Backbone:
């Protein structure tokens, strides 16, 4: 009888924990989702209503006018920025994957005598960096990073963290596969391209998506090296719109000067934001699963 | 050595792009650190300019504007709270997630929580604008709704450290919780079964099994963050606050200060700041690595 009683009591605690879990996770999920819904809603709202009544979770007087206006007025600018971003993302990710996976593959082979030396050579750059200024100096003065694609691509084509992450995947491939291919006279390049890479799909996908995301979301390189609008990636285009707005809403810019800067309307700001993240929203359902798996299998060393 | 090269030349060749890249963008810039000890001017070049010893770094700490100590404090405060909240929240999410059995709910919640990781800081900046815009923002609507006085957020520096810390935690909570979920998934389920047989309720299981088992992961991730505590997130600060001069002092971190000072206060001064940052990083990483090795059975952070 007494035993029965404690069991009921325990299950009450268990239930409370479960209920709390649902509520808590539900709450966090809403907090993560709501801001995005709001951005979408405002972008399809009527601008006058938004100015009068403010932002809202649901669209105010649904209309696609903003998008039509956006592409009619600054369509070429946006399309140009889109093209820049897409080119940088595709070319950059491809280059980055070749460089990164070759090095990760080589460093995953245990018989490579100086692999620890090379690994340390790579690691040291994470532990101690020269800082922004010397890096900026060589990029601008020696490598000619200014208003060109290389300024947007090259700074990101190698991430040492990603290289080591990918190495953990290559290390899981059984060495015997490589050895038998060697016996058959295959070169290491052949082994890399036709054995190692196909066998580490999860790792390649994860790291590839990390690079692609970094290129897509990059605006820092543009801030550093680009002032020609023809080379503005999407994110930097959006950054410029928003930072003008920020400066004016602080009230520090004199009214006269503020009048000269054409302020984008509220709905336009949110529409550009949606245009910027559009492809991510469409691709997200497909890539998310790989990403989660990739991080779960690779990120934890233990 | 010769035999090794002959046997594995292909593998070394595969590492070569990475090595060249790191030499170009990490090792050559080390030479530029000399600027930190000179009064650099363009005419005399890096190694021809006048040697001034530690004057630059001294100015950083004792300069009349007091910006040096201010940006160090800002960096540490933002990173500290980001670290604390960015550890507690994802762990809570991961633990609650384990208690949720409804697969549909689980899937949706995970997708939604992971999404902010895919957004750039500029987009996060746009979302924050939607909340805090003076005339149209959601927060001011709520304040007006309950009869409270509205706030000109973009002109009130004091609110922005918390806003930035919350944005940081928001963006990363999904990603970090996946790392903890991966750790949880590796735990031996027989421990929980044994605990259930012994009559431990869910709450006790969390406290006596889950949390102690998570401890090593938490410590390792924390040590890694501590190694980078002197490095601010440039993109986060610039993406959210932009060039709003009114808020700048309150949220400027070392990295944004270096960027904005490089044109006004010169390359030597800003290189010195970068050097200070790197040395602090090196010291903290070495200490963290020492502790990590102790906890992690000889395996360090890198």
Residues:
């Amino acid at each position: 009888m007494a035993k029965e009683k404690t069991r009921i009591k325990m299950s009450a605690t268990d239930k409370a924990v479960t209920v709390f879990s649902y509520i808590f996770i539900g709450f966090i999920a809403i907090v993560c989702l709501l801001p995005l819904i709001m951005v979408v809603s405002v972008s399809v709202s009527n601008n006058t209503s938004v100015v009068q009544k403010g932002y809202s979770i649901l669209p105010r007087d649904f209309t696609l006018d903003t998008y039509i206006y956006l592409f009619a007025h600054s369509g070429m600018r946006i399309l140009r920025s889109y093209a820049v971003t897409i080119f940088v993302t595709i070319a950059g990710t491809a280059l980055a994957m070749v460089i990164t996976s070759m090095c990760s593959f080589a460093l995953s082979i245990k018989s490579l005598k100086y692999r620890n030396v090379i690994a340390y050579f790579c690691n040291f750059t994470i532990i101690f960096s020269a800082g922004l200024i010397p890096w900026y100096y060589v990029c601008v003065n020696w490598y000619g990073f200014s208003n060109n694609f290389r300024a947007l691509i090259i700074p990101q084509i190698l991430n040492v963290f990603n290289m080591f992450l990918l190495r953990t995947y290559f290390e899981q491939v059984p060495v015997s596969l490589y050895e038998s291919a060697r016996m058959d006279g295959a070169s290491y390049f052949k082994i890399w391209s036709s054995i190692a890479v196909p066998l580490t799909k999860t790792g390649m996908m994860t790291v590839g998506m990390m690079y692609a995301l970094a290129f897509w979301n990059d605006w820092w390189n543009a801030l550093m090296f680009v002032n020609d609008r023809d080379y503005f990636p999407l994110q930097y285009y959006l950054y410029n719109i928003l930072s003008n707005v920020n400066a004016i809403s602080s009230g520090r810019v004199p009214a006269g000067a503020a009048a000269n800067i054409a302020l984008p309307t509220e709905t336009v700001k949110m529409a550009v934001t949606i245009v910027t993240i559009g492809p991510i929203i469409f691709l997200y359902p497909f890539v998310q699963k790989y990403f989660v798996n990739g991080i779960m299998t690779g990120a934890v060393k233990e | 050595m010769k035999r090794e090269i002959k046997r594995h030349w292909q593998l070394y060749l595969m590492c070569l792009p990475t090595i060249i890249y790191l030499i170009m963008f990490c090792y050559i810039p080390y030479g530029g650190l000399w600027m930190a000890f000179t009064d650099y001017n363009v005419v005399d070049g890096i190694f021809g300019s006048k040697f001034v010893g530690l004057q630059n770094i001294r100015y950083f700490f004792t300069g009349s504007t007091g910006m040096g100590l201010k940006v160090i404090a800002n960096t540490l405060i933002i990173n500290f709270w980001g670290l604390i909240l960015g550890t507690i929240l994802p762990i809570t999410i991961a633990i609650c997630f384990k208690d949720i059995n409804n697969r549909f709910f689980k899937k949706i919640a995970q997708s939604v929580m992971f999404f902010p990781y895919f957004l750039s800081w500029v987009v996060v900046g746009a979302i924050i604008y939607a909340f805090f815009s003076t005339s149209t923002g959601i927060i001011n609507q709520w304040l007006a709704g309950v009869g409270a006085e509205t706030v000109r957020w973009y002109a009130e520096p004091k609110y922005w450290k918390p806003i930035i810390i919350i944005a940081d935690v928001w963006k990363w909570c999904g990603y970090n919780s996946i790392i903890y979920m991966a750790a949880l998934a590796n735990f031996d389920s027989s421990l929980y079964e044994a605990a259930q047989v012994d009559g431990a309720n869910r709450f006790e299981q969390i406290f006596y099994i889950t949390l102690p088992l998570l401890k090593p992961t938490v410590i390792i991730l924390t040590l890694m963050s501590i190694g980078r505590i002197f490095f601010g997130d440039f993109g986060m600060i610039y993406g959210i606050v932009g060039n709003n001069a009114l808020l700048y002092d309150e949220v400027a971190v070392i990295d944004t200060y270096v960027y904005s000072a490089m044109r006004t206060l010169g390359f030597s001064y800003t290189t010195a700041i970068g050097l200070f940052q790197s040395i602090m990083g090196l010291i903290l990483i070495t200490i963290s690595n020492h502790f990590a090795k102790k906890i992690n059975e000889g395996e360090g952070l890198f």
User: Anything to note?
Assistant: The radius of gyration of chain A is 26 Å. Chain A is about 75% helix and 0% strand. Chain A has one domain: 74-298. Chain A touches chain B through 110 residues (CB under 8 Å).
